[in-house]
Amino acid sequence: MERLDLFGNPIEGKAATRQPSVSKEECIEEILRIAEEHPDRTLSRNFFRVESFITEYDWTFWFGTFPEFKKAAGLSPTRFETKENRDTAVHASKDILTALEADRLSWSNTYDRPSDERFQDILVCSDTHDVSCDPFFRRIFVDTAERVNPKKIVLNGDIFDLPEFSKFENDPRNYNVIERYQWVQDFLRDLREASPDSEIIMIEGNHEYRVCRSFAEATPSTKTWLSDIHGFDMRKWLGLDKWEVNYHARGSLKAFNVRDIKKEITKNFYCFNNQLLFHHFPEGRKRGMPGASGHLHKHDMWASYHHLYGPVEWHQMGGGHIRFNDYQQSMGEQWGNGFLICHADTKTLHTQMNYIDCSNEHCVVDGKYYLRNEAEKNFCLQ
User: Count of alpha carbons within 13 Å of 369, Cβ hemisphere only?
Assistant: First the structure.
């Protein structure tokens, strides 16, 4: 074989005589022999170097890299095969997710409790994150539900945390799915007992979305906790039937990258009487209606005027999560705790918003003072 330089000229002298000592076919025969004789060993570049008589120069001459060498021998899938396998897996996953989506869309109105009263109260919270919820926030919210007896209680996303399914890196030794599941069940029970006539609405946030995906695809983590609560389907796990909760989720589960997943989650919202919009993400404010969002755990408010509703407000609520965490410590100190009471006039479509801040040591709700007790202080310092 004639060797040529970069300009197409024949290479002369010693460089021209540097040829591989074995053919391409002999290289492949050798790597297949080693793979067959050592089926329990990983066929790495170093292992092949030790076990084979073929020099690194020989196989590099023909294949360039060791992964390409293995692909040529049929010991690794080719790029085309890898893409085809990945595409097949994606489509198979979509088939599974489609079945859950069809069922999931029907969960939004099973326990509707319509009212023809002109004045209706709506109690809204967001981002409790199960066992990471501030107990002071929880106590005030449940007590307010009992005192106000609202027509609607809106849980505006991320009621669950479940870091087992989070995008953040977490220490698996700290996983405790059953405790987190039980916290949400206890929270829903307390709300139902405090306000038995209220319609409870849960909007799917990004944390619930990831769990639904994991549930549908039966990941190893999902299989583990399903074995502990054997026989649970998604509705039962969310507590929808036991506590009579409507679950609002419009976003498709068939998304496979960060951008598409966020796009689908932003489709989840609840609209009251074509008058108020509740959306987990701040993007909800762009839809031009009064209402509230969560997700960022920080309170902010925008006042504007709407030709139909008059003067309106959009509240980005603080969350229920304690004001620190082990995966975003620098942000936690900027967070706030709080929830919203909306007094809606269904005739004029005007709504009075009353944001309740309970970030600190005391809180006032409709003239009632709450003080953080020692156990609640210690919980937030753990």
Answer: 4
